[in-house]
Design brief:
By secondary structure, the protein is an alpha/beta fold. The chain has helices at residues 11-16, 39-51, 54-57, 89-107, 128-141, 161-169, 184-189, 196-208, 227-240, 271-287, 304-310, 351-359, 373-388, 393-400, 404-407, 409-420, 441-446, 450-453; strands at residues 60-66, 68-69, 81-82, 111-120, 142-154, 174-180, 213-220, 244-249, 291-294, 297-299, 315-317, 320-322, 328-332, 337-340, 343-347, 365-370, 390-392, 424-426, 430-433. The chain has two domains: 1-10 and 373-465, Orthogonal Bundle (Arc Repressor Mutant, subunit A), CATH 1.10.10.920; 11-329, pyruvate-formate lyase- activating enzyme, CATH 3.80.30.20.
Length: 465
């Protein structure tokens, strides 16, 4: 499967698939987690890892959630705490250390880690000394393997070149800058004003410090955006030329996310304008030489993500596409999600509850899921589609002892419509996503989502394109 298509994607095709659906950073998706999954279930999953072969051969991925932000971005749907009181970080770091201690008591000290991601909130809310304290604590308890991916989300308003020196010194080799849009009017409408000059200077400073990869996040569909205004942002981004670009559709769900109630609905672009922005973004990035990695991600051909795409080594976890092999994930901090073996888990979503669990000496897990056999089979199919763009019937049959054509008879039948639209091909050996279909791979994966087929809850998801 090639990284690009021979001709631009038509707005008509994009409009046809302007529907809601999961992002499949996991399967089943996080909305399927249940409170019946307990601290005891999570403990048992860790003990199974310790006693099994995974303890020696399967590396770990770590996600650390830093929830604090100095100011509120109106579009945000993340779990965050708005505060200018930086002294709130110190007790949070102490509780993170307690949570790590609970893990190492079961797993032992020194487990190999090949991937670390600091997300938020705003991880750079922490001071340089606090970041040093956090990284020292993690290194005392885990072994950060050479050549791993160590990334941090960066609010450009919170750092300067000196702070970039600190991030490099601490071992971070990937940065993700939250830009969203360079247009001043759009920035005012979402309460996130940051001059383009500031971002350009930071990216240049980061390049001078030899970070392996620099990502820029963009959002289309924000208030006061138009296809013409977003064209100007696209031109600036292609001039900036980050190694990776993440392009997300804004999902306006004010009933679920309180900050979004501050956005004036009348200022939001209409559906046709959003589709135009997406189509023009794809054309601009690919014309500038970027590879469409999948979903919302673009990368320069020399970036590790694009190379992994070409070589069929893409993987997917709760942070999106990754070059790292499938591995267990420990989520640390308030609201963090983890994956251990055939389980998913999520921590308490409020600081008060998170602290209370740890004060009692318990993991702060409040919900999760133990995957059924059907979940595991479908996860394998969905992740093969999302990451490799193809599924071999034989590999699924050998790995899960099912007859693929019988087990997924209705799903194969449902794929025929997508095949007629040129998005997939199905033959006796498997399913292949076409070059055009790769842009709509979520729609292909949704066919195999048993939960999605049995209810009508798609509206709670973002649009699939």
């Amino acid at each position: 499967m090639n990284a690009a298509v021979a001709e631009p994607i038509s707005e008509d095709l994009l409009r046809r698939f302007d529907v809601s659906g999961p992002r499949y950073t996991s399967y089943p998706t996080a909305d399927r987690f249940v409170e019946a999954f307990s601290v005891e279930d999570y403990t048992q999953a860790l003990m199974l890892r310790r006693s099994g072969a995974a303890a020696m051969t399967l590396p770990l991925s770590l996600y650390v959630h830093i929830p604090f932000c100095e100011s509120l971005c109106y579009y945000c749907a993340c779990n965050k705490i708005i505060t200018k009181h930086h002294d709130r970080a110190a007790p949070y770091l102490r509780y993170l250390s307690r949570e790590v201690d609970l893990h190492t008591a079961l797993l032992g000290v020194g487990q190999a880690v090949t991937q670390l991601h600091l997300g938020g909130g705003t991880p750079t809310f922490l001071s340089d000394d606090e970041l040093r304290e956090l990284m020292a604590m993690l290194r005392r308890n885990f072994t950060l393997a050479p050549g791993g991916e160590y990334s941090i989300e960066v609010d450009p308003r919170t750092i300067d070149a000196g702070r970039l020196d600190t991030l490099a010194e601490l071992g971070f080799n990937r940065l993700s800058f939250g830009v969203q849009d360079f247009d001043p009017e759009v920035q005012k409408a979402v309460h996130r004003v940051q001059p383009a000059e500031q971002v350009f200077a930071l990216v240049e400073a980061a390049r001078q410090r030899n970070f392996d990869s620099i990502n820029v996040d963009l959002i289309y569909g924000l208030p006061r955006q138009s296809p013409e205004s977003f064209d100007r942002t696209l031109a600036q981004v292609t001039e900036l030329r980050p190694d990776r670009i993440a392009l997300y559709a804004y999902a306006h769900l004010p009933e679920r996310f309180k900050p979004q109630r501050r956005i004036s609905t009348v200022e939001l672009p209409g559906g046709s304008a959003k589709v135009a922005m997406l189509a023009r973004s794809m054309a601009a990035f690919m014309e500038a030489g970027y590879v469409y990695v999948g979903m919302d991600h673009f990368a320069l051909p020399t970036d590790a993500l694009a190379i992994a795409k070409r070589q069929g080594r893409l993987h997917r976890n709760f942070q999106g596409y990754s070059t790292q092999p499938d591995c267990d994930l420990i989520g640390l901090g308030v609201s963090s999600i983890g994956r251990i073996g055939a389980t998913y888990s999520q921590n308490a979503k409020t600081l008060e509850e998170y602290y209370d669990y740890l004060d009692q000496g318990h993991f702060p897990v409040v919900r999760g899921l133990a995957l059924s056999r059907d979940d595991l089979v479908r996860r394998a199919v969905i992740m093969a589609l999302m990451c490799q763009g193809q599924v071999s019937f034989e590999s699924i049959e050998l790995g899960y002892l099912v007859d693929f054509r019988n087990y997924f008879a209705s799903e194969i039948e449902a794929l025929h419509k997508l095949a007629e639209q040129g998005l997939v091909t199905v033959d006796d050996s498997g399913i292949q996503v076409t070059d055009m279909g790769w842009f709509f791979v979520r729609a292909v994966a949704m066919v195999f989502d048993r939960y999605l087929q049995t209810d009508r809850t798609r509206a709670k998801f973002s649009k699939i394109i």
